[in-house]
Structure formats: C-alpha cells, structure tokens
Amino acid sequence: NGDSARAESMICFTDSLKPFVDVPFTSETSSYFSRNNLDLVQHRSRWGGAVHFALVSSKGANSIASDETHSKNKSRQITGQIGKFVAERVGGLVSSYTPTQGNNPELLEKPSFDNTWYAVAYPWQIDGHENAVHAAMGWKPKNAGKPFSTRLWGEPIIIYRDEDGTPTSMVDVCPHRSAPLSMGTVENGKVVCFYHGWSFGKDSACTDIPTLNAVAEDRLDPERNERFKERATKANCQNNRAVVEHEGMIWVWKGDILAADPAKLPSRRRGDMDSLPISTVLDYDVDYSYIVENNLDSPHLFYLHDGSVPPIESIGMMAKNMDQLRLSSFQDDCGFGHLGKLGDTGRVKKLLRFDPPNIVRHGGVSGFEEEFHIIPIAPYRTRVLLRQHLPKGPILSTITSIPYMVPFLTALVNNWNYHISLEDAVVMKGQSHMIEDFGAPRMKIGSLGDDLIAKYWSWRSKAHTNMAQKEGDSFASPYFTSFEQKKAGIPSGTAYGDDPQLMSQLRSDSQKRNIPLVTSDGTRDEQTGNEIGTWGIKQNYVQNSPAADFPPMNYKAYKNALVFDDMFKQLFAGDEKSNTMIKTAMGDFGEGDMYKKSYPEKKPKIKRERKKSKLAGPAYAAAAVLTGMVVVDGNVAVANALSSMISNNIFFLWH
Predict the structure, then answer these.
(1) Domains, the chain, ordered by start
(2) CA dist 78 to 57, 86, 209, 271, Å?
(3) What is the mean pLDDT of residues 279-297?
(4) Where is the signal peptide (predicted)?
(5) Do 209 and 222 contact (CB within 8 A), yes or no?
(6) Which of 1, 35, 320, 574 could form a disulfide bond with 612, CB atoms 3.0-4.6 angstroms apart?
C-alpha cells in the first residue's frame, strides 16, 4: 500500500536526535515528531539526551499535525493503525519529564486526597533497621521482631511482614481492648498484642487468643475456639489497610480498600538507565503543605542554600547566579512544574514537578531524579521519604562494586540531605508561626517561581472543596478524627464521662487546639536525641508515632558531626569558620560564651599569617574515619567526647 493514502510506516530510532532534540524529555521528543507527521509510540533516553530510543509511527490519514493541535492534545492520541496496534500490546506512552511516572491522572483533573497510594516507609524500616546506612551495611536489624508504626493523615497504623514475607497493614489498635499493637511483637509472621497475647497474621486475620484455652481440659472445644477467632477476624476487618511493596517503597492506600488499584502506583520507566537509589528519612514539625511549597520553590535553592552542599554548588545554584535563573512552566501527564536553566540560551539544569497529592520530584537532563514523598503524619507533623536515584553509568558502577562504598555513599548523601533540611526547617517553622498563629497570608506578593506555588495551592483548595462537598461538611478535613463504633462491646469513653455528645465535643475541642486529651512524655535520649516516649519497664510507648528520630527535628547526631567537621577544617586546614548553625550552638568558636568562660578578659591579638598545617592531609583522613564512626555506627557518644575535647583544649591553643 505504498501509494495508498492509507499507507503507514513505523520507524525505530536508536541514536542521537541532535540538533532537533538535545534534551531527554518525552514531551519535546513527541513535539518534534508530531511536527513531522509522526506519532511517538514509545520513548527512552540516556546520557542526558545524547542517545534516544524512539519508536514512531505515521499519523492516520485524517490527522492534521501542527504545533497548536499537539500542544492542546495532552494525551497525544495515537492516530495511525499500526501505532495503535503496537500501543495496545506494549502499553501507551506516558509523558513524564522524570524517569518515574505517575499513573493516577484523575488526581490532576479531580483533585482529591483519597483513593490514591501513599509511600509511608522503606522496606528496611519494616525489617527493623534504624537507618539506611545500617541497612546498606547488612547489619542485623536492631528492631527486628517489632511492627513498624506510623501515621497517615493522623490515622495510626502498623505494618509487618506475614509468614510469606508480604507486608500487612492494619490500624494500630487491638480489637480486644484497644491496646496499641505497635507495643507488641512480630513472631513467625504474626503480630502479637503486648497486653493479652492476641495475635494477627496474614490480612490481619486473628490467629490466636490465649484465653480460649483457659478452661478445664475436658471442656476444650477447638471448633468453638475457631469460631470465636473468626468473629475476632470479622471485628478486625474494618481495621485492615491495603498495603503493597513496590519499587523499593511500602505504599498504603487511602480510601475504599476495595478500590485499591496497584495499576495506579507510580512506576519507573522500563529501559531507562539503571540507577543507585539512596534513601533518606526527614522529620519536620510543620504541616506538610509548607514542605511541598518549599520543594517547589526554585529561587530559595540559590539564596537560602547558596551552594551549601556540593550537589547544589555543582549545578550553579548559588546566590551570585540568581540573576541568571530562568524558569518556564510545564504540565505533563503526571503533574505540573518548572524547567530551570541559567541564562537565556543555557540548557535545562533542573526540573521540579508536583505529582498530586503529596509528591515533589526533582530531576535533570542527566537522568538524576529525587522524589520527595511528603507524608502528612498529623497536623504540624510531617515525615519526608527522600529517594534519590543516581544514574549508574560505568564510573558509579565501578565505585559501587568496591566493598562498603554503597554504605559510604548512603551516609554521605544522607548527611547532605540533613544539612539542607536543617537550613530549611527553621524558616518553615517561623513561616508557619506567622501564618497559623497571626493570620499572615501564605503569599501577599508573588515573584519568580511563585506561579507554581499558586498552582499547587489552587489544586489543594479544590481537593478540600471536593471533600467538603462529598461529605456535606464545610469543615471536613483529610485528617483522621476517630475510630468507628460499630457493634462495640463497650463503647468509647473519656475521663469526663461517656455521653456521646460530651465525647464528641471534647475530642473536637482537642483536635482544634491540636492538643490530645491524653499526652505522652516527650522525653528524648540525652546522647542520641531519639524519642523515648512514655518509659516502661518492658516496653516504652511512643504516642507521637513515628518517633521523630531523624533531622531536622532530631538534629543532635548531625550537629555533633558538623561541629567536629568544622573544627578539623579550622584546626588543620586553616579554613574560615563555617556559615552554619554551629556558630550559635557553640558560641561562634572563640567569640561566644564558650570563649568568654575560658578567657574572661580578651587579650590583644598578634597579627600573623595563617597557613594550612602540614597535618591537614592526615587530619582529614582521621576526620573521615571518626566521622564514619559517628555516621555509620551511630556512636554519638564518640562525637560528643571528641567535640568536647577539641573545643575545650586544642582549639584555644590554636588561637
């Protein structure tokens, strides 16, 4: 049919598309082929757009190719018969500026916090490891045999692996007497309640109730016991939650459990360059919305962070380059965001995108991607699961083949992320105080990049409006408020009484003030800064789960490492004092309280040229080893001792 108007062709490109396309993005590639009367059926790119793998087919006879129609056709409908035939069998092409694509496009058109998946943990957390470095080292999990506890939109849940190793999730409350199951243990794939020993296994089914056997031997009735456990399983059915382990993360479905659809999980594009994923956990004491806004804000990377860690400095994100920043808006099939570059003719350096309802993705032309899963734990409490994908080319593949290099890289990247989070957290805390307590506007006058913040806020407002209309309550909130009371043996109650109206009023007042009726001891470990909660002889109870054991909320371990690093650089390399939080924390090294206590009267200083010590090399080597002890082993006591020794003795001799 070569001469027929119905003739169609399919072409496979496996090389450079320069000068027509010099970026790796599917949208730009699709636009180029569309202008040439071709449909893009499948697409992959590597090496920052140097090589493209593109499968294209000719458009249908009735299709008119133009830039205008293409820009309006967000879904890029394939019009040719050959293209449709192939797409139906290999899957349609999703336009995504990042290697990870969202698969729940309904959330863009109909904003909602429900009927979607939320990443709530890393597998190593479910398995009992304290941090990503310990997991990378392959050490024995310290918390093995304990269920993982967290909250999603305020609802307390636990996650454990059943006897097949499959994740199971349920509400953190035993259907017997409402004791927290997070205080229990996991034994042979079953979570055992700490209070009376009731156990639950696969799909939260009740597997054992010890008191059923507390009868005379001649009165034991196995069939009756099984029927009772079936009743317990049925009573616990409403507490079950849909959970799945997918691409290195644990996801929980919010919404009708029967509507949980694994096809809506985000997914990495097949065929893209392999990557080394590095996982970091961050804990914040502000509402999740501030962190979404912060991660969609490009200019603050230049001004606030100003190249404070090597990755940011390497792509020119410094205050001196602020006037060169250029941003352009985009929307693909997964979300909306900005493309950023330096100068009018520069190449795209970084992109960021909001994937509803709570994910922000950063990426670049190199294939690097970082995904911020911003989890609403409770009002004014957020956990971020930051997962960074480092493109695994020949160099990184060689480096990671060296023993212990993956744990080292994990520790290094984790600490960079802690540093950035500590710079951000104090600003967001102050911002939250001004807005929430005094009614300051979220944004009064917008500037460069703030159009994306406004677009996110518009999406969020629509999600709240849709929820209020659905529930018929103008004050409806996505946050969890209370458990259902269906067929309860003894209904809920409070210290003030058990009248339903009284209880409702008390809880409502408590939630409005964000002060629970029952408060937990917020004691923290003096050395590690980890949250202890309500201390017990056999078991502690952490009410504010998950325990905020990571920076920026628990900054103690990182602060000690930062002090240690700063002192070594000053003592042995002659570097200037760092522009970090330790200036105030440690009295500005010689000009603050610590200096004054040792030297009540300042003595005249003798001007002298300051040269780098010959000990700089060995000192940095020692610093690397000792910092490794702090980071990898979590030995905060060592950091405290070293910091104290250096600050109180060696530093003053140096000056």
Answers:
(1) 10-95 (no CATH), 116-244 (2.102.10), 273-461 (3.90.380.10), 556-654 (no CATH)
(2) 9, 10, 58, 21
(3) 97
(4) none
(5) no
(6) 574
